[in-house]
């Protein structure tokens, strides 16, 4: 069964460093998302991406964040200068539009730890 | 204002019994979708069930069913015949916006007792 994959599973970085989180969505999906979950809290939307551009972003997704689909398979989230409060689990999701369910399937997540 | 409210921070259920996890939502959009996801201790988000606002019947997927009461704006998840492997965090979510983003509730931790 096709699934969303994410790498790395865990990344530790120093404050102020740039990180790139990678995702490979399900191959025939066209809509892609990033969410984050700070430990013990609920899942929060960051950004949605369709047709090679951002379709919606939250107030969390400031100038420090960017997304890219560099080729036909990868979808990346870049944080330019990490802060301590960026420590969280980051989930990538892709959207299946079939039978109108609009179900998003999530990857296993990348746990980002900023020291 | 909270768009998705899960009022039960934690629930216990005896193995093999049924349990209902509550979810209420708030939206003025006539077209919306409601989802339940399971997050085990390993951290991944597993899709369980979907209910569309225009669906006439309550959604069912195996042991999962969704008790959809549109007038009350509630979409409670019912898990029948609970198993130890059902112990996890459960999130209710609603699709909204032009990008179809998901808005999540705070979650309910379910513990199944043997």
Task: Describe the structure in your own words.
- The complex is a heterodimer of chains A (115) and B (114).
- Chain A is mostly beta strands and 115 residues long.
- Chain A starts with a strand and ends with a strand.
- In chain A, strands 2, 4, 5, 6, 9, 10 and 11 form a seven-stranded mixed sheet that branches. Chain A has a four-stranded antiparallel sheet with strand order 1-3-8-7, with no helix packed on it.
- Chain A is built from no helices and eleven strands.
- In chain A, a hairpin with a 6-residue loop joins strand 9 and strand 10.
- The model of chain B has no long low-confidence stretch (mean pLDDT 94).
- In chain B, strands 2, 5, 6, 10, 11 and 12 form a six-stranded mixed sheet that branches.
- Chain B has no helices and twelve strands.
- Chains A and B meet through strand 4, strand 5, strand 9 and strand 10 of A and strand 5, strand 6, strand 10 and strand 11 of B.
Brief overview:
With 115 residues, chain A is mostly beta strands. Chain A has no helices and eleven strands.
What key phrases describe this protein's structure?
heterodimer; A: 115 residues; mainly beta; seven-stranded mixed β-sheet; 11 strands; 51% strand; globular; B: 114 residues; six-stranded mixed β-sheet; four-stranded antiparallel β-sheet; 52% strand
Question: How much of the polypeptide of chain B forms β-strand, as a percent range?
Answer: over 45%
Largest interface: A-B, 28 and 24 residues
- Low-confidence stretches of chain A are none
Q: What level of helicity do the residues of chain A show? A: under 10%
Rg estimate of chain B, integer Å: 14 Å
Query: What low-confidence regions of chain B span 5 or more consecutive residues with pLDDT below 50?
Result: none
Which secondary-structure class do the elements of chain B indicate? Answer: mainly beta
Oligomeric status of the shown chains?
heterodimer
How many strands, which pairing sense, and closed or not: the largest β-sheet of chain B?
Answer: 6 strands, mixed
Quantity of strands of chain A, as a count: 11
């Amino acid at each position: 069964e096709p699934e969303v994959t994410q790498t790395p599973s865990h990344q530790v970085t120093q404050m102020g460093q740039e990180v790139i989180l990678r995702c490979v969505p399900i191959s025939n999906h066209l809509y892609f998302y990033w969410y984050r979950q700070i430990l013990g809290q609920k899942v929060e939307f960051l950004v949605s991406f369709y047709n090679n551009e951002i379709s919606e972003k939250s107030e969390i997704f400031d100038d420090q964040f960017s997304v890219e689909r560099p080729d036909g398979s990868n979808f990346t989230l870049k944080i330019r200068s990490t802060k301590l409060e960026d420590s969280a689990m980051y989930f990538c999701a892709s959207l299946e539009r079939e039978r109108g369910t609009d179900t998003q399937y999530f990857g296993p997540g990348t746990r980002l730890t900023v020291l | 204002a909270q768009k998705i409210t899960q009022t039960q921070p934690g629930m216990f259920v005896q193995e093999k019994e049924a349990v209902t996890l509550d979810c209420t939502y708030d939206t003025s959009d006539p077209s919306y979708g409601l989802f339940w996801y399971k997050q085990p201790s390993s951290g991944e988000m597993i899709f369980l069930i979907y209910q569309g606002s225009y669906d006439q019947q309550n959604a069912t997927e195996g042991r999962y069913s969704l008790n959809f009461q549109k007038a009350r704006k509630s979409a409670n998840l019912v898990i029948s015949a609970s198993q130890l492997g059902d112990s996890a965090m459960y999130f209710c979510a609603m699709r909204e916006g032009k990008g179809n983003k998901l808005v999540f509730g705070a979650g309910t931790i379910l513990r199944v007792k043997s």
